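Minutes, project huddle
Topic: does the predicted pose make sense with magnesium ion bound?
PN asked that the exact inputs be recorded in the minutes so nobody has to dig through chat later. Recorded below.
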Amino acid sequence: MPHLFSSEGLRALRDTLEVPKRLLLALDFDGTLAPIVPLPELAQTSPEIARVLGEIARQVNIAVVSGRSVADVSGRLGFDARFVVGNHGLEGLPDRVGKQAPEVVEQWREALDESCLHDLASAGVMLEDKGHSLSFHYRLADDRDAALAAIDRAVDRLRPAPRLLAGKCVVNALPENAADKFYAIRELARHTSSDMVIFAGDDVTDDVVFEQAPPHWLTIRVDSQGEARRARFHLAQTDMALFLQRLLAEICPQALA
Ligand SMILES: [Mg+2]
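Predicted holo structure (C-alpha coordinates), as shared on screen:
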Protein backbone atom coordinates (compact mmCIF):
# COMPACT_ATOMS: atom_id res chain seq x y z
CA MET A 1 0.00 0.00 0.00
CA PRO A 2 1.32 3.42 -0.92
CA HIS A 3 2.56 6.21 1.30
CA LEU A 4 0.12 9.06 1.72
CA PHE A 5 2.66 11.45 0.18
CA SER A 6 3.07 9.29 -2.97
CA SER A 7 1.50 10.70 -6.15
CA GLU A 8 -1.39 8.29 -5.70
CA GLY A 9 -1.87 9.36 -2.08
CA LEU A 10 -1.80 13.07 -2.84
CA ARG A 11 -4.23 12.57 -5.72
CA ALA A 12 -6.58 10.71 -3.36
CA LEU A 13 -6.25 13.56 -0.84
CA ARG A 14 -7.14 16.16 -3.50
CA ASP A 15 -10.08 14.05 -4.73
CA THR A 16 -11.25 13.70 -1.15
CA LEU A 17 -11.38 17.45 -0.70
CA GLU A 18 -13.13 18.29 -3.94
CA VAL A 19 -16.21 20.42 -3.52
CA PRO A 20 -19.05 20.02 -2.72
CA LYS A 21 -18.17 17.20 -0.36
CA ARG A 22 -18.65 17.65 3.34
CA LEU A 23 -15.73 16.28 5.27
CA LEU A 24 -15.39 14.67 8.69
CA LEU A 25 -11.80 14.41 9.90
CA ALA A 26 -11.63 11.54 12.42
CA LEU A 27 -8.41 10.96 14.31
CA ASP A 28 -7.19 8.49 16.87
CA PHE A 29 -5.13 10.03 19.68
CA ASP A 30 -2.31 7.81 21.06
CA GLY A 31 0.25 6.99 18.39
CA THR A 32 -1.60 9.16 15.86
CA LEU A 33 -1.91 12.74 17.16
CA ALA A 34 0.54 12.11 20.00
CA PRO A 35 3.58 9.84 19.91
CA ILE A 36 3.46 6.68 22.03
CA VAL A 37 5.23 7.31 25.33
CA PRO A 38 6.16 4.80 28.05
CA LEU A 39 3.86 6.50 30.56
CA PRO A 40 0.40 7.03 29.02
CA GLU A 41 -0.27 9.93 31.40
CA LEU A 42 2.44 11.95 29.64
CA ALA A 43 0.95 11.71 26.12
CA GLN A 44 0.21 15.11 24.60
CA THR A 45 -0.45 16.61 21.18
CA SER A 46 2.52 18.67 19.98
CA PRO A 47 1.99 22.45 19.86
CA GLU A 48 2.34 22.45 16.05
CA ILE A 49 -0.27 19.72 15.54
CA ALA A 50 -2.60 21.46 18.01
CA ARG A 51 -2.17 24.79 16.16
CA VAL A 52 -2.88 23.31 12.72
CA LEU A 53 -5.86 21.31 13.97
CA GLY A 54 -7.21 24.48 15.59
CA GLU A 55 -7.12 26.14 12.13
CA ILE A 56 -8.65 23.12 10.40
CA ALA A 57 -11.41 22.97 13.04
CA ARG A 58 -12.67 26.36 11.80
CA GLN A 59 -13.52 24.78 8.43
CA VAL A 60 -14.07 21.07 9.08
CA ASN A 61 -15.75 18.90 11.72
CA ILE A 62 -13.03 17.11 13.65
CA ALA A 63 -13.66 14.03 15.78
CA VAL A 64 -10.99 12.63 18.07
CA VAL A 65 -11.88 8.97 18.61
CA SER A 66 -9.81 7.40 21.34
CA GLY A 67 -9.69 4.39 23.61
CA ARG A 68 -9.17 6.78 26.52
CA SER A 69 -12.07 8.27 28.41
CA VAL A 70 -13.38 11.61 27.13
CA ALA A 71 -12.23 13.38 30.30
CA ASP A 72 -8.73 11.95 29.89
CA VAL A 73 -8.20 12.67 26.20
CA SER A 74 -9.86 16.13 26.14
CA GLY A 75 -7.16 17.72 28.27
CA ARG A 76 -4.37 16.41 26.04
CA LEU A 77 -5.51 17.84 22.70
CA GLY A 78 -4.56 21.52 22.87
CA PHE A 79 -7.37 22.46 20.45
CA ASP A 80 -11.17 22.32 20.42
CA ALA A 81 -12.43 19.32 18.49
CA ARG A 82 -16.14 19.39 17.69
CA PHE A 83 -16.43 15.78 18.90
CA VAL A 84 -14.37 13.88 21.42
CA VAL A 85 -15.38 10.24 21.56
CA GLY A 86 -13.87 8.01 24.23
CA ASN A 87 -13.82 4.39 25.31
CA HIS A 88 -13.47 3.11 21.72
CA GLY A 89 -16.75 4.69 20.67
CA LEU A 90 -18.80 4.04 23.82
CA GLU A 91 -18.65 7.56 25.22
CA GLY A 92 -19.34 10.99 23.80
CA LEU A 93 -21.57 10.32 20.80
CA PRO A 94 -24.20 13.05 20.57
CA ASP A 95 -27.19 10.78 19.98
CA ARG A 96 -26.26 7.79 22.06
CA VAL A 97 -27.11 7.34 25.67
CA GLY A 98 -24.84 4.58 26.94
CA LYS A 99 -26.33 3.90 30.35
CA GLN A 100 -25.78 0.19 30.29
CA ALA A 101 -22.00 0.07 29.94
CA PRO A 102 -21.17 1.80 33.27
CA GLU A 103 -23.44 -0.64 35.13
CA VAL A 104 -21.67 -3.63 33.58
CA VAL A 105 -18.27 -2.14 34.40
CA GLU A 106 -19.37 -1.55 38.01
CA GLN A 107 -20.29 -5.23 38.23
CA TRP A 108 -16.87 -6.20 36.82
CA ARG A 109 -15.08 -4.07 39.41
CA GLU A 110 -16.83 -5.98 42.16
CA ALA A 111 -15.73 -9.29 40.62
CA LEU A 112 -12.09 -8.20 40.75
CA ASP A 113 -11.47 -8.79 44.45
CA GLU A 114 -8.37 -7.96 46.46
CA SER A 115 -6.47 -11.17 45.62
CA CYS A 116 -7.16 -10.67 41.92
CA LEU A 117 -5.96 -7.04 42.06
CA HIS A 118 -2.86 -8.21 43.91
CA ASP A 119 -2.26 -10.87 41.24
CA LEU A 120 -2.45 -8.20 38.53
CA ALA A 121 -0.25 -5.72 40.36
CA SER A 122 2.47 -8.27 41.08
CA ALA A 123 2.54 -9.20 37.36
CA GLY A 124 3.12 -5.50 36.54
CA VAL A 125 -0.38 -4.97 35.14
CA MET A 126 -2.03 -1.59 35.65
CA LEU A 127 -5.83 -1.69 35.78
CA GLU A 128 -7.60 1.37 34.45
CA ASP A 129 -11.32 1.90 35.04
CA LYS A 130 -12.60 4.07 32.20
CA GLY A 131 -16.20 4.03 33.35
CA HIS A 132 -17.52 2.46 30.15
CA SER A 133 -14.75 -0.14 29.85
CA LEU A 134 -11.73 -1.57 31.68
CA SER A 135 -8.15 -1.51 30.38
CA PHE A 136 -5.35 -3.80 31.54
CA HIS A 137 -2.01 -2.14 30.70
CA TYR A 138 1.17 -4.25 30.67
CA ARG A 139 3.70 -1.98 28.94
CA LEU A 140 5.79 -1.76 32.10
CA ALA A 141 5.61 -5.48 33.02
CA ASP A 142 8.98 -7.25 33.20
CA ASP A 143 7.50 -10.52 31.95
CA ARG A 144 4.79 -9.88 29.38
CA ASP A 145 3.69 -13.54 29.18
CA ALA A 146 3.15 -13.59 32.93
CA ALA A 147 1.28 -10.28 32.66
CA LEU A 148 -1.02 -11.67 29.94
CA ALA A 149 -1.65 -14.79 32.04
CA ALA A 150 -2.67 -12.60 35.00
CA ILE A 151 -4.96 -10.60 32.69
CA ASP A 152 -6.54 -13.87 31.46
CA ARG A 153 -7.23 -14.91 35.05
CA ALA A 154 -8.84 -11.56 35.81
CA VAL A 155 -10.92 -11.49 32.63
CA ASP A 156 -12.22 -15.01 33.38
CA ARG A 157 -13.99 -13.57 36.41
CA LEU A 158 -15.92 -10.94 34.51
CA ARG A 159 -19.65 -11.58 34.04
CA PRO A 160 -21.24 -10.90 31.66
CA ALA A 161 -18.21 -11.94 29.63
CA PRO A 162 -16.60 -8.91 27.97
CA ARG A 163 -15.62 -8.36 24.38
CA LEU A 164 -11.81 -8.16 24.42
CA LEU A 165 -9.93 -5.72 22.27
CA ALA A 166 -6.15 -6.10 22.27
CA GLY A 167 -4.08 -2.97 21.68
CA LYS A 168 -0.42 -2.07 22.05
CA CYS A 169 0.50 -3.49 25.47
CA VAL A 170 -3.09 -3.22 26.62
CA VAL A 171 -6.12 -5.51 26.76
CA ASN A 172 -9.43 -3.65 26.75
CA ALA A 173 -12.57 -5.25 28.17
CA LEU A 174 -15.76 -3.81 26.71
CA PRO A 175 -19.37 -4.73 27.40
CA GLU A 176 -20.67 -7.08 24.69
CA ASN A 177 -22.61 -5.44 21.86
CA ALA A 178 -20.80 -2.21 22.67
CA ALA A 179 -20.27 0.41 20.00
CA ASP A 180 -16.84 0.45 18.36
CA LYS A 181 -14.79 3.11 16.61
CA PHE A 182 -16.31 2.38 13.20
CA TYR A 183 -19.82 2.64 14.58
CA ALA A 184 -18.90 5.94 16.27
CA ILE A 185 -17.35 7.47 13.15
CA ARG A 186 -20.19 6.35 10.90
CA GLU A 187 -22.71 7.84 13.34
CA LEU A 188 -20.79 11.13 13.47
CA ALA A 189 -20.64 11.23 9.66
CA ARG A 190 -24.40 10.76 9.62
CA HIS A 191 -24.93 13.33 12.36
CA THR A 192 -22.90 15.96 10.48
CA SER A 193 -24.22 14.97 7.02
CA SER A 194 -20.65 14.28 5.93
CA ASP A 195 -20.26 12.35 2.71
CA MET A 196 -16.50 12.06 3.08
CA VAL A 197 -14.39 10.85 5.97
CA ILE A 198 -10.65 10.97 6.50
CA PHE A 199 -9.57 8.63 9.29
CA ALA A 200 -6.07 8.13 10.69
CA GLY A 201 -5.19 5.59 13.36
CA ASP A 202 -2.26 3.45 14.40
CA ASP A 203 -3.46 0.64 16.61
CA VAL A 204 -4.97 -2.80 16.09
CA THR A 205 -8.06 -1.31 17.72
CA ASP A 206 -8.38 0.88 14.60
CA ASP A 207 -8.57 -2.16 12.29
CA VAL A 208 -12.32 -2.25 12.75
CA VAL A 209 -12.47 1.12 10.96
CA PHE A 210 -10.03 0.18 8.22
CA GLU A 211 -11.89 -3.08 7.55
CA GLN A 212 -15.39 -1.64 7.43
CA ALA A 213 -14.82 1.82 5.93
CA PRO A 214 -16.61 2.46 2.64
CA PRO A 215 -14.05 2.44 -0.20
CA HIS A 216 -14.27 6.19 -0.82
CA TRP A 217 -13.15 7.08 2.73
CA LEU A 218 -9.50 8.12 2.93
CA THR A 219 -8.05 5.76 5.54
CA ILE A 220 -4.51 6.20 6.83
CA ARG A 221 -2.54 3.73 8.94
CA VAL A 222 -0.05 5.61 11.10
CA ASP A 223 2.89 3.23 11.08
CA SER A 224 6.61 3.83 11.35
CA GLN A 225 7.32 0.51 9.55
CA GLY A 226 5.60 1.81 6.42
CA GLU A 227 2.77 -0.71 6.49
CA ALA A 228 -0.75 0.21 5.47
CA ARG A 229 -2.42 -3.07 6.57
CA ARG A 230 -6.11 -2.77 5.70
CA ALA A 231 -5.92 1.02 5.25
CA ARG A 232 -5.55 2.75 1.87
CA PHE A 233 -2.40 4.67 2.78
CA HIS A 234 0.24 4.82 5.45
CA LEU A 235 2.08 7.62 7.19
CA ALA A 236 4.65 7.85 9.99
CA GLN A 237 3.55 9.59 13.19
CA THR A 238 6.47 11.99 12.74
CA ASP A 239 4.85 13.12 9.45
CA MET A 240 1.45 13.81 11.02
CA ALA A 241 2.12 17.57 11.39
CA LEU A 242 3.17 17.77 7.74
CA PHE A 243 0.06 15.89 6.63
CA LEU A 244 -2.20 18.23 8.60
CA GLN A 245 -0.40 21.29 7.18
CA ARG A 246 -1.01 19.93 3.68
CA LEU A 247 -4.62 19.27 4.50
CA LEU A 248 -5.00 22.80 5.82
CA ALA A 249 -3.33 24.19 2.69
CA GLU A 250 -5.85 22.34 0.51
CA ILE A 251 -8.84 23.31 2.62
CA CYS A 252 -7.90 26.89 3.30
CA PRO A 253 -4.90 28.18 1.32
CA GLN A 254 -5.04 31.65 2.91
CA ALA A 255 -4.52 30.13 6.40
CA LEU A 256 -0.90 29.42 5.52
CA ALA A 257 -0.22 32.76 3.86
MG1 LIG B 1 -3.72 4.76 18.81
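Observations noted during the meeting:
- Residues 28, 30-32, 201-203 surround magnesium ion (CB under 6 Å).
- The two ends are 33 Å apart (CA to CA).
No decisions taken; revisit at the next huddle.
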